[in-house]
Structures are given as structure tokens and as C-alpha cells.
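Weekly modeling sync, notes
Attendees: AB, CL, MP (scribe)

Item 1: holo prediction request
CL wants a bound-state model with pyridoxal-5'-phosphate before deciding which constructs to order. AB pointed out that an apo prediction alone won't tell us much about the pocket. Agreed to run with the ligand included and paste results into these notes for async review.

Input as submitted:
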Amino acid sequence: MSDKRMLGTVCIQGGYSPKNGEARVLPIYQSTTFKYETSDQMGRLFDLEESGYFYTRLQNPTNDAVAAKIAELEGGVGAMLTSSGQAANFYAIFNICEQGGHVVASAPIYGGTFNLFNVTLRKLGLDFTFVDPDAPEEEIAKAFKPNTKAVFAETISNPALVVLDIEKFARLAHSHGVPLVIDNTFATPINCRPFEWGADIVTHSTTKYMDGHAMAVGGCVVDSGNFDWDAHADKFPGLTTPDESYHGIVYTQKFGKAAYITKATVQLMRDLGSIQSPQNAFLTNVGLETLHLRVKRHCENAQKVAEYLKANDKVSWVRYSGLPGDDYYEVAQKYLPNGSCGVISFGLKAGRDACKRFMDNLKLAAIVTHVADSRTSVLHPASHTHRQLTDEQLVEAGVKPELIRLSVGIEDVEDIIADIEQALNA
Ligand SMILES: *Cc1c(COP(=O)(O)O)cnc(C)c1O
């Protein structure tokens, strides 16, 4: 398969090329297990001496085809589907950072990821330092410790819409001998391919634009194959010393550039589960086939809605990196020249309570705990997704109390704007 295909072609054709007489559409391998002629052959699979399917918790052909498509879209060497975006971020970190390890993470990140790191992974003995991504490099460098194993950030943070200076973060990570892990959910590879800017691992909540129809919760971890684990062998013993659960294989020796993603699959997925169901992988793949068309339309619509909101005197502020004058306009021009995403945040002059009234008056835009699907939707993070956070944590996560998160869908934009207008006037 050529890696020079353009992204739209990969969305349609990637990951699955049927041979003569095989199903044109990627089949759902709705099977937990796979049959072998000899016991020895199956044994070799368990020893990782041969590759092949034996149990869907480790690998399934439907999942693998979808993972291969996402890997090709991102320009990586391999990918693994997970049951959710939460699982993807958990695996991405835990694969290289265990008890006693430390991660430098951008503070404005998805609330679920913040809780995963700051509450649950701390209980497993991992430590995190959250940094202001806009701080000068020397300032962020102070967060690193001898036991730091990774740097984590989102290309476009949900819901604060901070656009990351990926090259700055890659420099910081690499000068400290650790990989940069980027959650690329909001940008999608259509608008940004973080590996081209120095990121080493990419994660996705495929639940969002990749599925795009709000049908299937899922996640993905993609490995660029670029990080040199052996050059920092002492930091990453899980990849560079023998795994006794596979008769002492060393991932970097046996799997080379695919060491990280192979370990995540054959060791962590084997032990922890959270595989994506083949049915959900199939649905995600249907979404991926139109990702390039939908993302473009989401961005066009969001740009027009952002301009409308900006010009409205009931609106106190609008955050959308496509608006000249936005704090992230310049950085977005560099990393997201074709558009950022369909999500806008804004505040109402009338304050926090008016947000609820505004949302209740919307007719086309629905109040749902979701973003990034084809239907326009709206959420008030301070009352919904982020309600567990203290006021201080809200500010740290870049979420103002009066912030409304609007996920602009792919309906006709005139109707979306008319709906917002009638709700603002009500
Ligand atoms: C939604 C989201 C997640 C979590 O994904 P789920 O599929 O809901 O588990 C992680 N990161 C970002 C940026 C998200 O928007």
C-alpha cells in the first residue's frame, strides 16, 4: 500500500482491500475466536512467533482494518482500537508509564482525561504535573522530573479550544528524552497530522468526528514508530527489557518501530481488555468513509456561526481559532490551515443563568452530552461535563462558568444561525 495516497482516498479505501470474490464492504467478523488446524500453529501465535487471529480481545480482522485505516490517515506504523477514547488515553500513557512514573500534561484538556489522570491514575501511583500550554518553554521545562515518562496534550482542547503549539511541546518532550502523546480527536487527521510536527503517539476518541453520527463509542492509539525507545532504555524498561509473560521477548528488539503499539496490543489489551467491539469498528469505518467531507463542512459552518456570534451584541466573547483576533488564530494558521473543527465556545453577556435559558430555547440544536457529530448540539460544561471540578480547576481547564460549547453540525448553516438567533432573542 502506498503511503502517498491522499487523505480522502484513504478515508474510503484505507485498511481493507478485498481480494477476488471477497466482500466489497469490510465485513463484521462477529466472532470471538478463530479456528486452527494444528495445536502447534496456535501455540506459535501465543508465543508471538507468528501473527494471526486467535481471540478478539487481542485482535480481530474488522478492528485491524479500521485501525490500519486510521494509522494510514495519521501516517503512523500501526494502531490499536479501544472501547472508548478514555481507554485510548489510558493505554497510551500506561504503556510507558507505570507506578512511580510522572507525566507532564497540558492543563486545558478534556474533563474525562483530567479526571483519569488526576484521580484514577494517581491511585495507581502515577504522578502528573499540569502546565499552561501557552507558558514560555523555559517555564514548562521546570515541570519535568527525573521520572517523567511522557508529555500529553490535545491538538485542540475540549472544550477550551486552546490550539497547541505542537512543535514547542515536541521539543520539550524530546529534549527530556520522552515521547509526546497528542489527543487529536477534535482536529482529526484531516485538519492536522501531529506526527508531521514531531508528536510520537496520537490518540483519538473515535466517538467524535471519526464516527461522526453519534452511534459508536470508541477510541484509537496510533504509533508513529519514530520514538527511539532504546536511546532512552532506562526510562522505558517495559519496551527494552524482557517480558516474562512472553518467554522473555524484548519489544524493541523483536518489533522495531512497532514496539510500542505491539506491546499495547499483546500485553495491555491481553491483560486489561477494553477492546472495541467489531460491530462498533464497522460503524466507525462507515463514519471514516466520509470524514474528509464532513470535517470540511463542519469547519465551514462553524466559521459562519462564529462570525455571526462575534457580531451579536448579546454575546460577550467567542472562542474559535478561525476568527482573526482569536488568541489561537496565528497558531491555528500554522497547524490547522484548512480549518480547526466544528466546535465553538462563547459566553453570554447576561451571564451563567442566561446560558441555561438560551439553551432551553434552542429548537434545532439539542442539549446533549456529545460533540462532533453531524447534528448541531450544545452543552454548558460548568453544569454538565465539568460539574465535578472546583471553580479553580474550571479556570485551570480553561472553562469559564458562562462558557457555552456549541458543536456545529452539517445541517444548512442558515437554519443553525436562525435557531441561535431566535433563542438569543427569546
Ligand atoms: C470525548 C473525548 C475523550 C473521551 O472519549 P470517549 O470516547 O468519550 O471515551 C477524550 N479526549 C477528547 C479530546 C474527547 O473529546
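Recorded for review: Residues 84-86, 89, 110, 112-113, 154, 158, 183, 185-186, 205, 207-208, 217, 219 surround pyridoxal-5'-phosphate (CB under 6 Å).
Action items: CL to compare against the apo run; MP to circulate these notes.
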